[in-house]
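Please complete every field before forwarding. Incomplete forms are returned to the sender.

SECTION A: IDENTIFIERS
Entry label: holo-307
Bound molecule: manganese (II) ion
Molecule representation: SMILES string

SECTION B: INPUTS
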Amino acid sequence: MYNFTSFEDAQQTLIKTKNLQDEHKLQGFFSSIGMSSGDYVNLQLPQNLVVVGDLHGDSYSLTKILDKIDYRKYLSNEENILLFLGDYIDRGRFSFEVLLTLCKLKTEFPLNVMLLRGNHEAYHTFPFSSFTFDSELNDRFGKKGKVFYSDYVVPLFDSMPIVCEIESFAILLHGGLPIIKDTRFFDNYKFNLSDLSKNTLLLGELLWNDPRELSDVKWQPSKRGLGKYFGERITDEWLSKLNCSFIIRGHEPCKGYKTNHSSKVMTIFSSKEPYPKFESGYLGISYNNMLKCREQKSLLSNFMKLV
Ligand SMILES: [Mn+2]
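SECTION C: PREDICTED COMPLEX
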């Protein structure tokens, strides 16, 4: 876990991460298993995949997960991927430590750590205000906290990609699948998902939508006030167009994980400290088991682990 040394060190860590991710967005990044273009990351099946859901300032859960996967050894192989689904901050007591730890990880292992953006990392684009993170910074650093937030944290959020596709396996994102009425969207979906800053409606749905079991309708307005509830027909449409088997997402508190839509949608939740009634979990799965799950079109929950 990140040990605070100085304000300057924290600033430098955020700047480094932001610059790295901006460069990836601008020029694309290429590794032995993937590439990215703007907000969209495209990977081949990795040797191993670990996915972490909402952390919400729970540094204890993050530490446990990193320990359990033996992260240094795990990340020393560039074909192992460690992906975070967003919502790093707010609610828990250690948003600062969580965010800084993730930045350190990203700068140390830039090709196999992925930090997707959650709705809590979206202050410029949404009618949404921080719950606790800016006041946490204010308590810690006084006036400096405000500057840290506006000049370093918000630009870092803007640098985070939104969607990751692991080819022929899964779509990973924070909220859920948007309702796309124009089917021509899918003819060029990689391009359409690569610059979401110009399409805030689509961005809002990707970060705020939730899966629901809807039998009569394809989707419903969300009780959150933002985003929509998408039903199984939307899931099937996306999965068949993209030739994938699963949607892996965060955004909803649960006991580590839950499934929807006949096990095609997996929700992962990795925060416990601010949510005592729930559990922290993560997905840890190998190449061969991804193939197995793809074949069976289910079984992902066999590879969920609680911490
Ligand atoms: Mn969320």
